[in-house]
Design the sequence.
């Protein structure tokens, strides 16, 4: 495979996938094309709907990705609306909502929709369990990385280099699964 | 006008519009049809997109409505995602985010998309300025009513009867404008 388009406006996501795929000789090309996102209950629906829209505009293999942070004590909030919530109340808002909350369990989910010309999108899911930290720590990554500690680790995603984060992260897992999908064929 | 369909799954909204329109001899009929809601930056886009979808499924005049609570100190949160946020963190979550926040200004917005067979949807906007209360008060209404005090008032929407709430409220205003629209023709 020569070039693989990643339809996203998010530089951080593009960096993570470029780094991971380059090791397999695949050149990920970020394409900020834009697509309508529906208000849905699951990331799968958002990604599928987005891919169905993009596939009519592009004649090369591409993928797009939707991710969300689901916090147990907040009934899954911010979930499907993680990006919007991040841009309004941010990590500080989440930490305020989690003040004095004992159960800090949370799950980061990543859903990739991969699509080839004339075919239906393939949906691939990656998940990373962990906990919400007591304060923001670390300068790497983006979004909720400074407040998420993956299970079995002591540092937040924002304290890790891209390479290390990709080993644990939801997106690292979904990207690895996409690579496996290519290799099996 | 005989019957006017209100496409909504929200009983509270249906009650408010029935009460207001019945005074003008218009019978509002709630229809829980369902329509896709897009992730958008404005309520207008959500309502317009919804109406465009519904108008192909129904051959009678109808309206649908999207509403949101925009809190100044939270950069407009929960805004376009008010319903989702209500069902995850609720009024309690909003009050926690507003703890020790001095600027409690907020605006309730209601956007109606009214549509007749074969025509483009008409967009009508109602707004109500007010403040977030320090605690939940009142049992009437629904959603964020127990924590919203309209400007110039001392009680929350949830402490008012439907008739009184309709005088101040965002939805009362957009519904009145829809009535005016009918009368002008």
Sequence:
């Amino acid at each position: 495979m020569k070039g693989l388009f990643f339809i996203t406006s998010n530089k951080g996501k593009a960096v993570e996938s470029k780094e991971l795929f380059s090791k397999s000789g695949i050149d990920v090309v970020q394409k900020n094309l834009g697509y309508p996102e529906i208000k849905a209950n699951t990331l799968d629906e958002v990604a599928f709907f987005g891919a169905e829209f993009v596939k009519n505009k592009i004649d090369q293999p591409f993928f797009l990705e939707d991710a969300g942070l689901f916090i147990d004590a907040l009934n899954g909030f911010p979930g499907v609306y993680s990006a919007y919530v991040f841009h309004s109340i941010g990590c500080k808002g989440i930490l305020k909502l989690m003040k004095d909350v004992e159960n800090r369990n949370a799950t980061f989910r990543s859903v990739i929709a991969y699509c080839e010309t004339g075919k239906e999108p393939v949906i691939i899911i990656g998940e990373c369990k962990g906990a919400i930290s007591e304060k923001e720590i670390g300068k790497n990554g983006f979004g909720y990385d400074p407040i998420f500690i993956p299970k079995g680790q002591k540092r937040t995603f924002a304290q890790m280099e891209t390479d290390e984060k990709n080993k644990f992260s939801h997106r690292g897992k979904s990207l690895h699964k996409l690579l496996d999908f290519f290799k099996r064929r």
